[in-house]
Amino acid sequence: MTAAVAQTRQAGRRPAPLHYLIHSVRLTARNTGFTVFSVITPLVLYVVFSQIFGKQSNDTGGIDWAALYMVSMAAYGSLGAAMGGGAQLAVERRSGWFRQLTITTLRPREFLLAKAAVIMIMVLPALILVFVAGYVVGGVRAPFGSWLAALLLMWASLIPMTIMGLVIGLWVKAETVQPLNVLVMLVMALLGGLWFPAQLMPDAMQTIAKLMPSYWLASLGRYPIIGGSFPWQGVLVLLGWTIALTILGALGYRRAAANSKR
């Protein structure tokens, strides 16, 4: 009783976004299915495919193919985990949780940022595990600074994909969220060159690829390993997606909150 009162008082002193963030992290961590899917799936994908193709040599200027494939699989797996987090929103909409949120001081933008932060926290272990597997299983070797830079760049690049999952969860019916998430993820993986290099695509598809956040997710992750010029174009593309999706998500939150009052 005393502990519960103390916890309530402590929560009362927190800003609403921070309190919602902590509460959501606890709830998400208890969702065993989502946690296992978001953490284990990228690892399994990398281990399986690296064992099939990872020992092949490449002729891309002496760059280790296993390292390139590690980044691609980390991007593909984390993409699915980032977008999958938004599917829970559809359940919350249907359960009446939004009706509770509308009577709090939590604003739409704060809600989206807090929800995106929760998913970003849950995605980070998946990226780290794939990189560890790249070292242990794939035999990838690089300076520690390159590993860290690749990890941080990929993690930051996942922000628009995370918000995209939230947007789908806010705007689409619960029954349609999962198949739409899978479809969007597959399209972005294909056009983003996560399955095979975008340079092998026709010119028109290469142009489309460079508009995809997934393309720059992998490109920014490869930059610390491959080197060359920093892909500033990718930063602009990811920023554009983030702004547009945040606006769309805020509108979706208002719409979902309004519908929940009926």
What's a quick, concise take on this entry?
By secondary structure, the protein is mainly alpha-helical. The chain is 79% helix and 0% strand.
* Uncertain runs: 1-8
**What percent of the residues sit in helical stretches (DSSP H or I)?**
over 70%
The beta-strand count equals 0
Strand and helix order: HHHHHHHHHHHHH
- Whole-number tally of structural domains: 1
Largest sheet: none
* Coarse structural class: mainly alpha
By DSSP (H or I, 4+ residues per run), the number of helices equals: 13
Q: What proportion of the residues form beta strands (DSSP E)?
A: under 5%
| Radius of gyration over all CA atoms, rounded | 20 Å
Mean pLDDT, nearest integer? 78
Cα-to-Cα separation, first versus last residue: 35 Å
Assembly state: single chain
Overall geometry: globular
Membrane topology: Multi-pass membrane protein
GO molecular function, one term: ABC-type transporter activity
Keywords: Antibiotic resistance, Cell membrane, Membrane, Transmembrane, Transmembrane helix, Transport
Organism: Microlunatus elymi
